[in-house]
Amino acid sequence: MTAKSWKKGARLHGFVLRDEQRVEAIDATARLFEHEKTGAKLLQLANRDPNKVFAVSFKTLPQDDTGLTHILEHSVLCGSRKYPVKQPFKEMLKGSLSTYLNALTFSDKTVYPVASRNWRDFLNLVSVYVDAVFFPNIHKTPEIFLQEGWHYALSAPSDPLTISGVVYNEMKGVYSSPDSLLGRTAKTILYPDTPYGFDSGGNPDRIPDLSLAQFLTYHRTHYHPSNSYFYLYGDGELEEVLRLLQEEALVSFGKQVLTHRSLVQPPFSFPVEKTVAYPAASTAGRTMYSASYAVGEATDPLQMLMLTLMAYVLFHSPASPLKQALLDAGVGKVVSGQIDPSMRKPMFSVFVKHAESGALDLFRRVLTDTLRRLAEGGIDPDLLHAGINWLEVTLREPDQGGPAGLTYLFKVMSSWLHGGDPLAHLRHDKTLSALRAHVQKGGGEQWIQKNLLDNHHAAFLTLEPSVTLAEERERQHRQKLARIKDTLSAADIKRLIEQTQRLQARQQAADPAEALACLPLLSLNELPAHPEPIPLEQTAVQGVPVLFTPHDTKGIHYLQLSFDTKAVPEEHFPYIALLAYVLGKMGTKRYTYGQLSNAVHLLTGGLQCKVQTYQQTQSAPKVATVFHVNVKLLSHQWPALPDLLHEILSLTRFTDQGRLLQLIREFKAQRETLLLRSGHQFAVMRLASSLSDKGRCDERLHGIGLHRFLSRLEREFAQRADEIAERLQQTARLIFRRDALTVHRVAAEGEAGEHLPRFLEQWVPTLGMEADAPQVHQQAHRLVNHKQYEAFFGPGRVQYVAKGGGLFTAGGRYEGRWMVLKTLLETEYLWNRIRVRGGAYGAMCSLSRTGALAFVSYRDPNLTETLQVYQEIPAYLRRLNPSQEEWHRLLIGTLRKLDPARSASQKGEVALMRHFSGITEEMVREEWAQVLRTNVNDVRELAPVVEAVLKEGAACVIGGEGKIKAHADLFDRIEPLT
């Protein structure tokens, strides 16, 4: 049966077509099916996108704080009926061309999405995921629960009892982040009588309360087709997927009735208040406050767009009057917020951070007074229209954070899960028109009055820092485990040791060859001959190098204005990063900073500055630090751009000391949040700073060095305000010169190309020249060798452990086989040793063309054990002896990483990176060919180089104070993280 002949009521492989509609906003035909036997629901969004997405989702409401739904998400991907290997997820990461492969636990659902551009690979992924969720091995292999969830570990009767588990250690890391704790706690106190009142991820103190029996019962009842939502997006063949679902899964089930708890929290009669302590390194200025409100309906598209718009108006925009009022009143140093539109009754939260204790009343008073003034006196129309324009561009580019089909999936589920129209949030063109009309009639002011001022369903949270809490909790944890061990009989201890041994034996055992052979695998002739090319055409206009990457951009023009920063002297180098943050957020000659923010979103689709460092190939190690001004434009917005850019780049008023100090504090707070959430990235950056000029620049512009710089500026601002402003002004004059400029445009072929010459003709003359810049002594950014073992400690309960060195100094050179080694280590050795056996959430191998090679763990309970795992890599490589099929799978996984699916703007960024790094299309294709030619011996031969890297390299650990200080003898230097 062809698509053209389908009519409402058509039957296909057990499914009945209930409805078919055209959704013009996303250029797709939507078909809604129901499986007759089980009641399973399926939505297809058929269009021409080759990056196909499949997902199966379940309504999974937490019943407590044990993280059951999160542990289940991990565990079903650890082997199944048809694919009885220990880690099918890992094997498909290694052996497929997937463009997305993950599983996600939300507050009310669990989602299993996959994506691929290769049709047979896509079907393979669907088959593996469907078998995993419906027929997992968890019911016959209890060690899966012990490994992924939690378990008591005991190797000998005299050893102390410990707890480990992948999710357990992951959530210890999550609960170490105050920002994460703020949002999670706000949600639990706002919806106390619903499943939202529990943490679906799991509180690490409560995770050990979960039993295996509870875990298995929940899977049997909730992972059933009657509770499922299937989703299919892209240009795939629908019938083939329906047949697969029917034959491989649904035929085995009947219909089941599952009653869920209500997700609707009865409204509060009055707002609630709560104070919670959190571990911190210091208390001064470390209190946090939040005001959270239950607002709107997740199934209503206009309300949800309104929610997003008001988040922009009230805290995302630099022009936000609420944000500024809280800062001006001195409530705190940083104001932000978040929304969660996926919950049945969405949450709207305003956060104040870096505040003093006892300021809750001031926070509430300023918040209420400002909201009342906006509701009664009106919101700036320019701010509202700027927000709507920002929304329009955002809705046009759904593939910025992953495949477009994934973005649409989350929009679908936020209504579908709650019994609403699954297409409601996809018709955003009509909703946007309705939003404009609603705002024109005072909808913004009405929203504030109804949802914030008159809404008693609100919660006010205070997070108070404690310097002793981390140590107290750790002591209580050890004492609790000691008491538990004291209650165990000799037989109990024997059983626990045997359980630990069985788990370790399973973790160390290799999958049988016949089990691995069950996994689907593409043949070599089904692989692309080369990666997708990213074209880059080069010309010159007005004497300026102009680059062009043609791509379908859905009417958006991506313009990248790139300035070489080589004229900036060494001592001013970190000011480049600060300049990138403050530009567009400070006032100019003609605009206040609020007016400028509105102008940016009224006259463009958005403007962003960022700094990146590029290094040429190893034969010519030239380093360039480039300042990018990235602008999104619709065709009609080009004429206003020259004046706007001149205003921002040449006429910014850095002398507004109050605003500058606010931005320094805000920037510092953002970096601090990243340090606590993504310590692995900062540990690797710190390592690389001793290995190459690029690494050193990156550390000073983005790493711990930048955080130290910002902390120093904030501390010394009162004495140095004029100097800081002058240095920013001087840095801008040194950078924004026409002789330092390269222009790059990404747009559809032949689309509005005539705008660029006119733009350059008007704008380029406003830029300075080298002769106009202040005369400074140019210094090379010389490499300073500080290879050492460093540690940075904080109140966290997990570590990020990095070790590495220079590839080139160890006698190696960058080539395709190193990428194979990276895939091998990440999906085999490091995965098994650090994640599976060590209990860390993850481990990675970092490798760049500059020669920086590093190994790093993520949310790791260990330290010395992980360093030892790295030391044993060379021995692992020397004894490497995979089967032909395992090697074939490894090569496919490597190619997947070399050619990911990219959005239009991402392709533009890659094209520009290659331009400044001297990477040609021929080099990219040669690396692809080298990967395909790599054999086992080629990787074995890398063992001596890795050995030399580890011997001569350095280490950096970011982690908990207790763990680091217990191993102080390992390190040359130990410092507080923040």
From TrEMBL:
It comes from Laceyella tengchongensis. It comes from the Bacteria. SUPFAM superfamilies: LuxS/MPP-like metallohydrolase. InterPro entries: Metalloenz_LuxS/M16, Peptidase_M16_C, Peptidase_M16C_assoc, PreP_C. One of its GO terms (molecular function) is metal ion binding. Residues 463-713 form the Peptidase M16C associated domain. This is Peptidase M16C associated domain-containing protein. GO terms for biological process: protein processing.
